[in-house]
Design brief:
With 146 residues, the protein is mainly alpha-helical. Helix content is 82%, strand content 0%. The chain is built from 5 helices and no strands. The longest helix has 37 residues. The protein is elongated and about 50 Å long. The protein starts with a helix and ends with a helix. Its EC number is 1.3.99.-.
C-alpha cells in the first residue's frame, strides 16, 4: 500500500514538473520573440513565480519520491536505474537553466537589445530535449532492459 501511494505521488510530481518545464520553454520562446522587453515583463514575472512555487518544488518531490521508490524496490544495483538517473539529472539541469533564464530575463528589463533576449542554445530546443529525455526515462522504467 505504501509503495502504491509513493508511486502515485511520484507520478503526480513528475506531471507537475514536466508541465511546468513545458510552460517555461513556451514562455522563454515567446519572451525572446517579443519586440519589447516591456511586453514580456508581466509574462516573465508570472512564470518565474509559478516556477518557484510549483515547478521547483515538483522537481524536489520528484527526486524525493523517486529515490524512495528505488530504495523500496531495491533497484540501486540495477543498470537501468543508473541510466535513468543520468536522464533525470539532465532534466534537472535543464530546469535549472530554464529557471535561471527566466530570472535573468525578468531582471534585465532595462535592456532592450535583442541579443540580451536570446536564451542559451540548450534552451532554444528545450521541449525537444525534454521529450527525448522523458521518452528514455519511460522506456527504461517500463522495459528495464538491463
Amino acid at each position: 500500500m505504501l509503495y502504491a501511494v509513493v508511486k502515485a505521488a511520484h507520478l503526480l510530481a513528475v506531471f507537475a514538473l514536466i508541465a511546468g518545464m513545458l510552460a517555461n520553454a513556451l514562455v522563454l520562446r515567446m519572451a525572446t520573440t517579443m519586440s519589447s522587453r516591456q511586453q514580456a515583463a508581466p509574462m516573465l514575472a508570472t512564470m518565474t513565480a509559478w516556477d518557484s512555487r510549483v515547478t521547483g518544488p515538483a522537481l524536489g518531490l520528484t527526486w524525493l519520491f523517486g529515490l524512495s521508490l528505488a530504495v523500496m524496490g531495491g533497484w540501486f544495483p540495477d543498470a537501468w536505474l543508473m541510466v535513468k538517473l543520468v536522464a533525470v539529472l539532465g532534466l534537472s539541469a535543464l530546469h535549472g537553466m530554464q529557471a535561471g533564464s527566466l530570472r535573468r530575463l525578468g531582471r534585465d528589463q532595462a535592456r532592450e537589445d535583442q541579443a540580451a533576449l536570446s536564451p542559451p542554445p540548450p534552451l532554444r530546443h528545450a521541449a525537444a530535449v525534454m521529450a527525448v529525455l522523458v521518452a528514455v526515462i519511460v522506456v527504461l522504467v517500463i522495459i528495464r532492459p538491463f
